[in-house]
Write a structure and sequence with these properties.
single chain; about 600 residues; mainly alpha
Length: about 600
């Protein structure tokens, strides 16, 4: 148990104000770049741009602002800064320092007023951004704050003081985006803060005992630190600070200790940005993966994640993010990419993905994107999952990490995923890295794995699961690949057809038998309504069902059922979406 800091023994805080300044900065940061997800997305270079208006965050208690002190910072800048430094040097470490807290809160308010652009009575005739610039360039504010945030007991100080200091650092980081002189002078400050956050990360983890003295104090500190990191990442200034490993560590601390940030759809996106930067660093701005990125990730996972947090806690934290039902589109792509890139870096992760159920959760995330995501974006996340599946089947099967491959076959539906990748590769024209080469590699690896499982006992559940997957996917996919051969854009399409055909033949599936079974299932499907809520989804329909004219892949017993299913989700999947006329309100079924 951590020892209580002195301030906890004699301070009862005044909970009268709430800081929204940093949150508002993120709103303003993203306002000019965002777009609604119903529109076509721009080139994702970089991809940290689709943030929407944020709801007001959880109210964390803050001290009142003394606006006389705020005004004195404008009218008597030099004297007030000298007073601030003196109060800090004379402070009782982690004790009760009310004058210091009050003045620090006033400086923070100036930073917040610049971020929120709100009218503060005492600042109507003043320019907060100009004052921040003056404090940095003429009064050496970054050097003073660097000393403050470098102290090992900084995160043990009174929480409002910590949050106020972080408010000021955020304001400086924002100013640094547009002012090279501010950027130059603030590098040491940002790096020192991130180093301390990593070195004393335990002081940022939730602590019920500390919450009794200052509710949500540590969450508030993490939130401010997270805002600073997200601002650096989405504005691409993180590169300018150097010390990438240090910044990635701070990003890891913010993401790992803040699952509460994912409870709302808006702040979920910020959390995933932190995760993505943790895993990819500055490489996140480059669409191609390099040896440098892979080596940096390997080093971080081996030296930072495993020794500090452990394999299972890290995997379970990933699971929490991936299970979030609001995770979709770009955020889902970043999260799946982070999961797949990191779990193949060390045997302990491979061993842990079976017990944590992460394979199943990863597949369900990709399924969510297929069902609810923007049209034409399946490959964005599928390409990462396919790469992980291929790596696991190559590395794990028949090795000490066989549990990973066993979990993959039982919970990950590898045949279905490879089949879907082949279909998407053709339909989405090899977008976002899902190429024929990658699919061929996965298909051949799957074939080897299938042959190995086929040599197991006929009573083996693993063998049965693999054969069932092939039985369900093989012939329908073979039909699809043959049908699309004429319009395929790659000369390797015929090789894919041959490899897929061989997959079934190696397991002694007879094409004639599978064709008969497939056609029988088609005839049965043609007598049922696709809409799940319809009684004739289970019962045989007494009237002829009609196919959707948009895709010819679903059938309905009536126009009302068709229109309702369109509203309930078929709209996002129907191939006719790209045509100018929506079937909404029309009878879009036919014989």
């Amino acid at each position: 148990m951590q020892q209580l800091p002195p301030w906890a023994e004699d301070v009862v805080h005044d909970t009268v104000a709430v800081t929204n300044g940093s949150q508002a900065e993120l709103e303003g940061e993203c306002e000019s770049e965002r777009e609604t997800e119903s529109q076509s997305e721009p080139e994702p270079e970089p991809e940290y741009s689709d943030f929407e208006q944020q709801e007001e965050p959880l109210e964390i208690p803050r001290l009142d602002v003394d606006f006389e002190l705020v005004d004195s910072l404008h009218t008597q800048t030099r004297e007030t800064m000298s007073q601030w430094r003196a109060l800090y040097s004379q402070r009782r470490r982690c004790g009760t320092n009310k004058e210091l807290w009050s003045l620090t809160r006033a400086v923070a308010k100036i930073g917040q007023s610049n971020l929120t652009k709100k009218d503060v009575p005492t600042l109507r005739e003043k320019d907060p951004s100009r004052l921040i610039r003056v404090l940095v360039t003429e009064h050496d504010l970054p050097t003073f704050l660097e000393d403050v945030v470098s102290q090992d007991d900084f995160f043990s100080e009174y929480p409002d003081f910590i949050m106020s200091v972080l408010d000021v650092v955020i304001a400086i980081a924002v100013q640094a985006k547009i002012d090279p002189s501010v950027l130059k002078q603030s590098r040491g400050l940002v790096v020192a803060l991130c180093e301390n956050a990593w070195r004393n990360r335990a002081l940022l983890a939730d602590d019920e005992t500390m919450d009794r003295y200052y509710p949500y104090g540590r969450e508030g500190a993490r939130r401010q630190l997270s805002y600073m990191m997200v601002i650096l990442i989405i504005s691409l200034t993180a590169k300018s600070y150097g010390h990438e490993r240090t910044l990635r560590r701070a990003s890891l601390v913010c993401w790992f200790y803040s699952p509460e940030a994912e409870e709302k759809a808006d702040t979920l996106k910020f959390s995933v940005v932190l995760l993505d930067y943790t895993v990819r660093g500055n490489f996140a701005t480059d669409r191609t993966r390099t040896d440098g990125e892979a080596n940096a990730l390997m080093e971080m996972m081996h030296q930072d994640v495993l020794p500090v947090f452990g394999s299972k806690p890290y995997l379970m934290r990933l699971r929490t993010t991936l299970e979030n039902p609001d995770l979709i589109n770009k955020s889902l792509n970043w999260a799946v990419s982070s999961m797949t890139r990191s779990v193949i870096t060390h045997p302990e992760f491979l061993s842990g993905i079976a017990s944590t159920g992460l394979i199943k959760v990863g597949m369900e995330s990709v399924n969510r994107q297929a069902l609810k995501g923007l049209p034409g974006t399946q490959s964005d996340s599928l390409v990462h999952l396919l790469g992980m599946y291929t790596a696991i089947m190559k590395i794990a099967f028949g090795s000490p990490h066989q549990a990973a491959c066993t979990a993959l076959i039982r919970e990950g539906s590898p045949v279905e995923i490879v089949s879907r990748a082949l279909r998407v590769c053709v339909e989405e024209n090899q977008s976002s890295g899902l190429s024929y080469d990658m699919c061929l590699n996965a298909l051949r690896t799957l074939g080897n794995c299938a042959l190995c499982t086929n040599n197991l006992s006929t009573k083996s559940t693993l063998r049965k699961a693999m054969r069932q997957g092939v039985r369900e996917e093989w012939y329908p996919t073979l039909v699809f690949l043959r049908r699309t051969a004429a319009r395929a854009s790659d000369s390797q399409h015929n090789r894919v057809v041959s490899e897929w055909k061989r997959l079934g033949e190696d397991l002694e599936f007879d094409e004639g038998v599978q064709k008969a079974l497939y056609e029988r299932e088609l005839r049965k499907a043609q007598r049922h309504c696709t809409r799940i809520a319809c009684r004739y989804h289970q019962e045989l329909c007494p009237v002829r069902v009609r196919a959707c004219k948009g895709c010819y892949e679903v059938r309905y017993c009536s126009s009302p059922c068709q229109r309702q299913d369109w509203k309930e989700g078929h709209k996002s999947r129907c191939k006719r979406l790209n045509e100018p006329t929506s079937p909404e309100g029309d009878d879009e079924t036919d014989d």
